[in-house]
Amino acid sequence: MRSRAPVVKEMEIDDAYRACEAITKREAKNFHYGIRLLDHPRRKALSAVYAMARRIDDIGDGEESTETKVARLAELRQRLEAIGQGGAEDDQVMVALEDAMHRFSLPMGAFGELIDGCEDDALGRSYKSFSDLTAYCRKVAGSIGRLSLAIFGTLEGADPEGQAPWLADQLGVALQLTNILRDIEEDRSTMGRVYLPTEDLERFGVAGDLSGPTDALVGVILLQAFRARQYYTDGWRLLSKLDGRSRACTGAMAGIYRRLLGRIERRPEAVLYTRVSLPASEKAYVAARALLSGTARPSIPVRGNHGQPGEDG
User: Fold this and answer.
1) What is the C-alpha R_g of the chain?
2) Taking a C-beta distance cutoff of 8 angstroms, is the pair 20, 49 a contact?
């Protein structure tokens, strides 16, 4: 474990974490159900990761010019690369993230991948093949999966082949594909973006702007949903490698998105005119079930988790 640099006072760090948790509670409509199931040290750290990811996404999705977005992303990339060297005292998200980085040995390069993906968004890039689309998903969501795994750690002896990072990446792709399907109409009408692979659109007879027969577009949507299911199948294997609270957190977040995918599969045409979502009561039900199943097993030592001893939720 790397030692934590005394950049700011402990009270200021606590305030910084509280600011990140407020951002997470306000903005993470689905993820918050899972994050709140973690013990206190990991909940704080994951909130810091989410708050920074939110900042990066907001730049990519903002109303500024492409040139301004790219410049702001480049500036943020430099700040993240220099984190730990001071200069973050006036930025609560940076303060909290720096502390989390030292406590949990976060793979900070993953934020660079997320910025790469948001640059793709800012530049209006499209994706010819499904392979191209999954590469984008790994940048913007697989990266978060790997950052989360650094905070969770793995059960001692549960991952002898070192598969956990790959499984976290697969689960991230599954969640991002679900996001893409959910947001088809908003992305097209508000952001001017189409993420669906152009090869698939052409195969089903749909134009690049998604105009064409509804039945054909539904076919494209169901094809992506089928592919997302395969990624959930792989990613779900990650849960067996996590301790109870981390398993509950991951199970809640992934379970909510998997249910959302099921709703899209039942009425695929709905995403063409609205943003499909789950009611809060259903999200709470999924989180409660995840907590019960996640904490039912006996506690086993965790490898790779560097929260401070004696802290709990």
Assistant:
1) 20
2) no
Cα 73 to Cα 79: distance, rounded to the nearest angstrom: 10
Kindly report the three-state secondary structure assignment for every residue of 242-293: CCHHHHHHHHHHHHHHHHHHHHHHHCHHHHHCCCCCCCHHHHHHHHHHHHHH
pLDDT of residue 8: 55
Mean pLDDT of 258-271: 96
Total tally of structural domains belonging to the chain: 1
Q: What is the mean pLDDT of residues 146-152?
A: 96
Whether 202 shows a pLDDT value over 90: the answer reads yes
Gap between the Cα atoms of 218 and 249, Å rounded: 32
308 within domain boundaries: no
Tell me if 104 is assigned to some domain: yes
Instruction: Indicate whether 287 belongs to any domain.
Output: yes
Output the pLDDT for position 208: 93
Handedness of CA 61, 62, 67, 72 (dihedral sign): negative
